[in-house]
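User: I've been trying to design a sequence by hand for this structure and keep getting stuck. Would you show me what you'd pick, starting by listing the structure so we're on the same page?

Assistant: Good idea, let's start from the same input. This is the structure you sent:
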């Protein structure tokens, strides 16, 4: 089993100290934005709480600032340290608290991959281009949230509130219910399988 440890006094360390973290192999999809505000799909293939290696068609410059949104991990940002033929590496800019949160998330992902646990996913993941959305609860209260993950049968959203499991919700125009809580937000299962046409506003 993997277990990440955050080095002591990491906030005072110089940038190269980010490599003191253990990188593990993962396959986590997402989207990233380069300094020119161009967006690209990406995949994190090696990651630690201090740095990450992406495969991506976008080619940033060394020391360029990059912002990425990764499935299950949420928003990360940092500076490019290496650029290769298939992608690039980035040092993650984060507080100690954020690194501890990343360590816990990466431990779960790495162990899930190592144990071969299923994705529990009946339909292929789709990459949303429009991520800002509103969730409406059964009592009519509405909350802004960010679409992290999308398929024809459900979605994961980054949101501060945690409605109880089974709570009916409307995500944009799609009805469903809350089926899981996770660190960044909640997972919603749609009441019926959607078509790509019905999801076109997000793709």
């Amino acid at each position: 089993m993997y277990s990440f440890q955050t080095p002591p006094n990491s906030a005072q360390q110089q940038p190269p100290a980010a490599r003191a973290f253990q990188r593990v192999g993962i396959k986590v999809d997402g989207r990233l934005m380069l300094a020119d505000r161009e967006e690209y799909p990406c995949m994190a293939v090696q990651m630690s709480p201090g740095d990450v290696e992406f495969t991506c068609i976008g080619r940033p410059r060394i020391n360029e600032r990059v912002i990425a949104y990764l499935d299950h991990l949420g928003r990360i940002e940092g500076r490019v340290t290496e650029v290769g033929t298939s992608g690039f590496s980035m040092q993650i800019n984060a507080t100690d608290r954020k690194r501890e949160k990343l360590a816990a998330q990466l431990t779960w992902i790495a162990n899930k991959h190592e144990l071969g646990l299923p994705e529990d996913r009946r339909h292929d993941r789709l990459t949303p281009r429009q991520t800002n959305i509103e969730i409406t609860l059964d009592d009519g209260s509405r909350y802004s949230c960010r679409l992290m993950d999308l398929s024809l049968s459900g979605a994961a959203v980054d949101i501060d509130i945690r409605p109880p499991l089974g709570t009916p919700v409307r995500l944009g125009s799609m009805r469903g219910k809350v089926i899981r809580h996770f660190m960044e937000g909640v997972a919603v299962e749609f009441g019926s399988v959607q078509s790509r046409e019905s999801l076109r506003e997000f793709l």
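That's my pick for every position. To get oriented when you compare it with your attempt: The CA atoms of residues 54 and 154 lie 26 Å apart. Residues 5-19, 114-122 have pLDDT under 50 and may be disordered.
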